[in-house]
């Protein structure tokens, strides 16, 4: 079987990790920055995937999107605009927070916001991630002029915690899923993820049914992630990501097949089999800091460094810890605690509190 080359639109850490995952399978993965004036050399049998959902019109980006094997164009179109994404969830009867479009051509934004209750979260329809492009609103606050026609608003949800589901689908419609992963965000940025905590059969089944329904509807090929709020034991879908996802990074050491390998298998037409857990696993994002080689003394810890310029709040790497039991995972966190900066101890504390 001759394997296609996988071209990834985007050359950040996700493209880098896809490239690493392809090497053991002798699968060539070529990340390409999707912005530029100089056209790139593409083959007729290349398969084009993405590590970022959206980029402005330009010669290289248009070339990638215009390739006959550009995958998941429909899903990307639906997801990059939050209004379209919420409409997709509503059409497929996937539960999500009450929401409104802020557009004065249909209704005054203040009236729309008030319909959601005492408080709401305003989100830019396009762009915005890691806490950017979002605002909090409560009754009595003014509306910003930039929201009109450019944003949606969601009711403030009193959730207990957040989880995500990462799954994959191939061209034949076969699907596999990881266990729900519990996540902690700070200032809109994912700080840590722990898998296999909830073990709630109904939540897992609901999440798999919804994500499977979405992927089937869009005839999706590859890995997709779905972030959810947990409200009184039930799930509400927050957002979709049509790509490999930060909350699935734990799978690199924590599962027999990582999310990166699963994505490539689906795209290349290789067997899509159910990953198995290798133990108890967590992922800890490294933000705006150097990493310390002393961390490699921590049992079960693996560091993934992105080679980025260090800036405050920027994701520059992540650490995965995988141990055979929850008790052993706690022991490794206690080993790590004296090696982190004071400001990062709260991440360790959150992880310990979940375990």
In summary, what is this structure?
The protein has 355 residues and is an alpha+beta fold. Helix content is 26%, strand content 27%.
CATH-derived architecture of the largest domain? 2-Layer Sandwich
- Structural class of the helix and strand makeup? alpha+beta
Query: How many E-type strands?
Result: 16
Domain count = 3
Task: Report Rg.
Answer: 20 Å
Uncertain runs are none
Assign an overall shape: globular
**Strand content of the residues, in percent?**
25-35%
**Kindly, what is the distance between the CA atoms of the first and last residues, rounded to a whole number of angstroms?**
45 Å
- Output the CATH topology of the largest domain: D-amino Acid Aminotransferase, Chain A, domain 1
CATH class descriptor name of the largest domain? Alpha Beta
Helix content: 25-40%
Oligomeric description of these chains = single chain
CATH superfamily of the largest domain: ATP-grasp fold, B domain
Number of helices: 10
Mean pLDDT across residues: 94
Major sheet characteristics: 9 strands, antiparallel
Write the H/E string, N to C.
EHEEHHHEHEEEEEEEHEEHHEEEHH
């Amino acid at each position: 079987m001759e394997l296609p080359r996988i071209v990834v639109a985007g050359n950040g850490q996700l493209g880098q990790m896809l490239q690493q995952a392809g090497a053991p399978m002798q699968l060539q993965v070529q990340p390409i920055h999707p912005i530029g004036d100089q056209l790139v050399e593409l083959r007729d049998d290349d398969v084009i995937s993405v590590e970022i959902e959206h980029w402005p019109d330009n010669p290289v980006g248009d070339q990638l999107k215009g390739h006959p094997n550009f995958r998941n164009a429909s899903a990307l179109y639906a997801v990059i605009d939050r209004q379209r994404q919420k409409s997709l969830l509503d059409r497929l009867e996937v539960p999500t927070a009450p929401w409104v479009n802020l557009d004065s051509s249909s209704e005054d934004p203040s009236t729309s916001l008030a319909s959601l209750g005492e408080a709401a979260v305003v989100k830019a329809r396009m762009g915005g991630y890691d806490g950017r492009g979002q605002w909090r609103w409560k009754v009595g606050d003014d509306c910003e002029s930039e929201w009109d026609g450019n944003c949606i608003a969601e009711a403030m949800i009193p959730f207990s915690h957040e989880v995500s589901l990462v799954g994959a689908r191939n061209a034949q419609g076969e699907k596999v899923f990881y266990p729900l992963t519990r996540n902690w965000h700070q200032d809109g940025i994912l700080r840590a993820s722990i898998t296999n905590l909830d073990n709630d059969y109904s939540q897992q089944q609901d999440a798999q049914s919804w994500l499977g329904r979405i992927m089937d509807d869009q005839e999706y090929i590859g890995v997709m992630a779905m972030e959810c709020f947990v409200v009184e034991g039930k799930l509400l879908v927050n957002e979709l990501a049509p790509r490999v996802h930060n909350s699935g990074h734990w799978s690199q050491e924590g599962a027999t097949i990582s999310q990166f390998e699963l994505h490539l298998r689906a795209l290349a037409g290789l067997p899509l089999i159910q990953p198995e857990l290798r133990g108890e696993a967590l992922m800890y994002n490294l933000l705006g800091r150097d990493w310390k080689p002393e961390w490699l003394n921590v049992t079960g810890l693996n560091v993934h460094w992105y080679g980025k310029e260090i800036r405050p709040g920027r994701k520059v790497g992540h650490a995965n810890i995988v141990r055979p039991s929850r008790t052993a995972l706690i022991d490794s966190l206690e080993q790590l605690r004296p090696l982190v900066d004071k400001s990062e101890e709260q991440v360790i504390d959150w992880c310990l509190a979940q375990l």
